[in-house]
Specification:
By secondary structure, the protein is mostly beta strands. It is built from 1 helix and 9 strands, in the order βββββββββα. The chain has a domain of 90 residues: Immunoglobulins (Immunoglobulin-like, Sandwich), CATH 2.60.40.
Length: 133
C-alpha cells in the first residue's frame, strides 16, 4: 500500500466584531452658568471616529455639541458648555460615531445657585436678636 495525498485546502477565520463603545464621565468645573462635559472612547471598533455630547434639561436632550474627529480607544474628550441657567439640572451623554454608533449612559449635573450678598452683623445686633426671641 502506498500513501495517497489529497489537495491542499486552506481556510481563514473571521475576525471577531467589536462594537464601538463610549462612557460618559462626570461633569466638572460646574458654576452657575457653565460646566465641562467629559467622555472616553472605550472601544473604537477598529477605526477612529467622531465624538460629541448630547445635552439638555431632560433625557431627550435636544442639543448637540459639534462632532470632533480623530478619536480611538482610550481617548478622553471634553466640551465646555456656557450660558447655562443657574440652579438647573442638565442631562448629558457622550457619543462616538464611526460604524457602528455608540451612546454613553445618561448623566446629570446641576448648575450652582449664587448665595447672594453677605450681611455682616455686629455682636450688639446678635444680642438684640437673642433678646427678642
Amino acid at each position: 500500500m502506498g500513501t495517497i495525498y489529497g489537495s491542499i485546502l486552506s481556510f481563514t477565520t473571521g475576525s471577531v466584531a467589536v462594537d464601538a463603545s463610549v462612557m460618559t464621565l462626570p461633569a466638572t468645573d460646574i458654576t452657575e452658568h457653565a460646566a465641562v462635559l467629559h467622555g472616553v472612547v472605550l472601544a473604537d471598533a477598529g477605526h477612529w471616529g467622531f465624538t460629541r455630547f448630547q445635552w439638555g434639561l431632560t433625557p431627550e436632550y435636544g442639543r448637540d455639541t459639534p462632532w470632533v474627529g480623530g478619536f480611538v480607544s482610550g481617548d478622553v474628550f471634553e466640551y465646555s458648555l456656557s450660558g447655562l441657567t443657574e440652579g438647573m439640572g442638565y442631562h448629558f451623554r457622550a457619543q462616538f460615531k464611526h460604524s457602528p454608533f455608540a451612546n454613553g449612559a445618561d448623566a446629570v449635573f446641576h448648575t450652582l445657585v449664587p448665595l447672594g450678598p453677605l450681611v455682616l452683623i455686629t455682636d450688639e445686633q446678635v444680642h438684640l436678636l437673642e433678646e427678642s426671641i
